[in-house]
Every structure is written in structure tokens, then in C-alpha cells.
Description:
The chain is mainly α. It is about 70% helix and about 0% strand. Strands 1-2 form a two-stranded antiparallel ribbon. It is elongated. The two termini are about 30 Å apart.
Amino acid sequence: MSQPTVRRNGQGGPPLGVLGVVFTALFLAGIAVSTIMAGTTFPSPFGDGALAYFRANQSAVMMTGFLQFAASVPLAIYAATASARLRNLGVRAPGTVIALTGGTLASAMLALSALVSWTLSRPEVAAEAGVVHALHFLAFATGGVGHVVFLGLLVAGVAVPGWLAGLLPRPFALGGLVIAVVAELTTLVIPLTGLAVLLPVARFCGLAWLVAAGFLLPRTRPRNNVQETP
């Protein structure tokens, strides 16, 4: 006999899985479209040729900024919806606040990086080599380390209560914790730039995990499991 479920007060919000797909699709589109337009990938601030890239590919840089800024919106909505969903499911642990804070800051960092990229697409800015280098590093810092570290907090804020409250499969939740740890380790990229290889690992694994979590996180809990998670 199936277990009765309890529906808590409040709306469930937009579908988390769909928000994750939209955010991820927009973010990846920003990479793909600019790469196709420029015929090469977005340069690293630690390599050579960045100045020539920004001067020759202003439209591609503009599209990167546009699509990444667009991606920051569903990410913010995802964080708010996930936090509300966890509270409606009876979770009262700090994870709900961590998820909301991490997701909000990850969205803000991505939006800031996108706006800096848009600034780099302006021809009057590209004419100043010193300004280009400074803005390029700022775009990397906010869209790289800044975004990924806080994205890791969002993953952890969903994974921990999802594990403790039995809302997510335990192996899946454990995978989220591993991803979150790697994301937090990217803080070391600031003094040790050679560890920048951790950024794409944490970013893309985190995106995939959040999409899957959006579809796996339930809207209701079995009545005999409904209790406030400490």
C-alpha cells in the first residue's frame, strides 16, 4: 500500500529541473556561440594574444556577455526555488539558507563577469591595452573563481539536507558533496593560478548535478518521513 503524502502550504515554484536546463543551456550557448563567431576559444588572462582577441572579436565578446548575463537570471530563480522547496519539505537546517546565499552570489558573480565582458566588447575600451588587461582579469576572477566557489555552496546547500532528510539518493547526494568540495578548493586558484584546471571540472560537474537534482528533488514527502530536519 502506497504511503500517504503530505502537501505543505505554499507554491512549489517553477520546475527546478527546467530552470537548471535553461541556465546550463544559456551558459553553454555563450561559450559555443562566441567560439563559432571568433573561430577560437575565449582567451585566458594568463596567456598571450588576449589583446588581439578582444580587438578582433568584439561581436563574439558581446555575445558571451549577453548570454552569460541571461544565464544568471534562471540561476538566481533556481536558488530561490530550491531553498523554498527544501523549507516546504520540512528542512530547517542551515542548508536552505546556504543554498539561497550561494546561488544568489553565484548568479551575481556571473552577471558581473558578463557585464565586464560586454564592456570589453566596446571598441573604445579595446583601444586601451591596460584597461583591457585589467577588465580581462576581473572577468576571469568573477566568472571563474567567484562564480564557481559560490556555485559550490549552492550544490552543498541542496546536497547536505537532501542526504540527511532522505530527499535525494545517498550516492547522488554524496557526489554533490564531492563536487562542492572541489568547487571550494578553487579558492586556491587566487594564489596558485596553476590550479585553474579545477574551475571547469567543478563548474561543469556542478551544472550537471544541479540539473539532475532539480528533477530528483521531490515536491512532497511521505507522511511518516515528515519531520523538521535539524
